[in-house]
Design brief:
- With 151 residues, this protein is mainly beta.
- The chain has one domain: Immunoglobulin-like (Sandwich), CATH 2.60.40.1120.
- The chain is 10% helix and 40% strand.
- The longest helix has 11 residues.
- The protein starts with 8 loop residues before the first helix and ends with a strand.
């Protein structure tokens, strides 16, 4: 009859020490990020231009409608298409009525952006794309105002 002998506390401590750190077993912590690769964010604002709104949003156009709002258009979402320098593509959505927002964490890169104004029925308008938007490490880059020319 064989008898099982429990390893002593010292043996368990030794086994634990071998399994942690030094590249063996589970990592002790998440890898440290290089300071030059710390994520940042993009800051967005948008304007809806109707027929009586000037290109600067001042209401100095020649039409009749300068009270364009997300609600009056049935617009619910501003969708931003984001393409980085490696051609990785993704998007983020923002609530239209906020008039602006911050992106989630993005790694430093040069970005190209596209913009869509959406409602429950689909696409309402697009804004001119913007390219060459440089995001540096651990900073918020302000994107030039996004202008949607709406009917």
């Amino acid at each position: 009859m064989s008898r099982w002998v429990s390893p002593g506390p010292l043996a368990l401590t030794f086994a634990y020490a071998l399994g942690c750190g030094s590249g063996a077993g589970f990592p002790d912590a998440a890898p440290k990020m290089d300071a030059s690769n710390t994520p940042g964010s993009l800051s967005f604002t948008w304007t809806l231009l109707g027929s009586d709104t000037g290109s600067d949003g001042s209401g100095s156009g020649s039409g009749t409608d300068n009270d364009v709002t997300c609600a009056s258009l049935g617009a619910t979402t501003v969708q931003v298409g984001i393409v980085d320098a490696n051609m990785s593509t993704f998007g983020q959505s923002f609530i239209c009525s906020f008039g602006g927002s911050l992106s989630g964490a993005l790694f430093p890169s040069t970005y190209s952006l596209t913009f869509q104004l959406l409602g429950s029925a689909g696409l309402i308008a697009t804004a001119p794309p913007q390219s060459g938007i440089v995001l540096t490490s651990n900073n918020t880059t302000v994107v030039p105002n996004i202008v949607f020319d709406v009917p």
